[in-house]
Amino acid sequence: MPFTQCCFWGYNGSSWPRPAPGNPIDRTPANDYQRLAMIEQSWNPTQPDPSPAEAAPPWSGWGLRLARTAWPILALTVAGLWLWSVRLWAAGQTTVSSNFLDVPYGVVMPLGYFAVAVLLVVRKPDDPMAILTSLTLVFLGPYLLTGVNVTVSQQPGWEVLARLLLIVGGILFFLFLFTFPDGRFLNRWMQRLTLFLAGVYALGMLLSAEAYGSFSAAFIPAAMLLGLGVQVYRYLRRSSPAQRQQTKWVVLGAVGPVLLVVNWVLLIEPGVYALPAEPLPFYLHQSVLAALGLLLPATLAISILRYRLWDIDLLLGRTLVYGALTAAVVAIYGLVVGGVGALVQTQDNRLLALIATGVAAVLFQPLRERLQRGVNRLLYGQRDEPLAVLARLGQRLEDALAPEQALPALVETIAQALKLPYVALATGQDEAQGMAAAYGRPTPHARSFPLVHQGATVGFLWAAPRAAGESFTPTEEALLRNAARQASAAVHALQLTADLQQARQQVIAGREEERRRLRRDLHDGLGPSLAAQLLKIGSARALLADRPEVAAQLLAQMEADTEGALVEVRRIVYALRPPALDQWGLAGALRVFAESYAGEALAVQVETPSSLPPLPAAVEVAAYHIGREALTNVVRHAQAQRCTLRLWVEDDRLHLTVQDDGRGMAGAARSGVGLASMRERAEELGGTLIVQGAPGRGILVTAVLPLNSGKER
């Protein structure tokens, strides 16, 4: 497919098929909230989040071969003409400035355009828009803006080539302005308008010098400003959020070369104002113009490196460092030779060149190190500053106002500090469990790092490399593992907070349930009984003088009712705390209970120290019920001949064991109500209950209850 047909002739706003709304292919969420909802509903950390099909498809076939052949021919032609023009400028053989005063505008700026152009064609050789942009940069900076076309046209026999290259470069710039960033025109009307403008421009370049001056003053500024307007319209109305992030810098950068062209056509070429004659003002003037011209390649580089324009990968650190270093050395050399020469008004270029070389040599190593750090930070974040990253993580965790805000802050900090496209945290011991926090879009090449706290896996940290096919360096892996250690503590703290909240809710629910039971017992039991007693007392007092025998019967009934009420009160009190504990203490109460089960078929032995330290009430109650339940299970299920209950305090913990020599415990008995009740009582106090046994070998029940937990409760 020919280049023009592939990129321009057939592209419009509706050329590319898009998934219809509701189509299963169209899974892209409309906003970040929908994206998060989709991830929460069905989360797979390695499943990519599909992007809109908005980029031009890869180029292939003979069109690609033609472009790969034409690009180096055109680029080398322009580069050769530029280098030849630089030599002519240096020798003072053109009307353009000499003595290297034009280094910023004539040398540094073209180098910037060449660097980004090569970057585009090397990293995206099959993308039509990338190739168009690369060719536009080759012609725009080194040929059109620097005046190389003027220098070439002044040489005998070169005017036709200069005019032809001027036509090609101008048309490329028009196409760039009207089709960036996806290679499509806004609509067919805009496509026809662009082709019309390109044709008019090409014909205008063939006019005589007098006619060309009037044509360029009227046509070129209007056409370029129209192209800028199209870019602004695209940005505001037609670009997706991802495209806006990628292209907003480029739209701003395109203003630079457009202003330079308009400045030349409307002001300099007609003679409205002349270039400064003095060396220093001229040097400053050219430096400002160079900075303005470098806006386009600089903003393209920002979009590529920071926002992945055209999905160009970022494995360019060393290239960027030495490219920037070369440009900086050239700039330093030009600054010293041009600036100092302009200040001291000297003609000794050898001395200035020697001084410039010395300054460049002295600044080379520190400048390289600074550029390396800057490029590394731009591409990889704070990868080389692990202490700063960990400190930043700690600070974000400290600044989190609520526990549930800690994990989102943590993944966001890791992603921003290392410039990773995706970071997520999953809780639990399964890698595929639900997500607790995520930043960015899931990618198919994400890696997991376990979150281990006190030997237990509490979750996983998912992180995706910066581009497909990349892998984390050992430094990055070590940094992510250290970040996972900090995250594990945060995840464990969040789980503890959730468990504590659940425990509090259970305590409140249990307390309210106990109050409800007490209210029911008092209202339904003691209340009616006491009301009846009050009525009988009134009746007995009324009958005491006239019918003493009836009054005596009522008093006898009252006595019986009072005994019943006393039994009810004892029942309620016993439900709150077994009275045996107040009467005999824990050891004595268990001994009395065990003796009630002892007989010829079962011998029960209770082993307790001579005295126990004061125990918290909650621990006493829990231990008493656990001991009672364990002894009851022995009598009901064990078919044992001997049972031993031991009770002692060690290391601020109350230990209780019940062991028998019965038939053991079958698997089905492990989930019985009695065992579950004993385990719940132990765990409520932060203790443990372990049941060990095998068929024919008896059962050993071991309960360990911390005394401090009982005191707090």
UniProtKB/TrEMBL annotation:
Keywords: Cell membrane, Kinase, Membrane, Transferase, Transmembrane, Transmembrane helix, Two-component regulatory system
Protein name: GAF domain-containing sensor histidine kinase
Transmembrane segments: 70-91, 103-122, 129-148, 160-180, 192-209, 215-236, 248-268, 288-307, 319-344
Lineage per the UniProt record: Bacteria, Bacillati, Chloroflexota, Caldilineae, Caldilineales
Keyword Signal listed: no
UniProt xrefs under PANTHER family: NITRATE/NITRITE SENSOR PROTEIN NARX-RELATED (PTHR24421), SENSOR HISTIDINE KINASE NARS (PTHR24421:SF37)
Source organism: Litorilinea aerophila
Compartment annotation: Cell membrane
Highest taxon, organism lineage: Bacteria
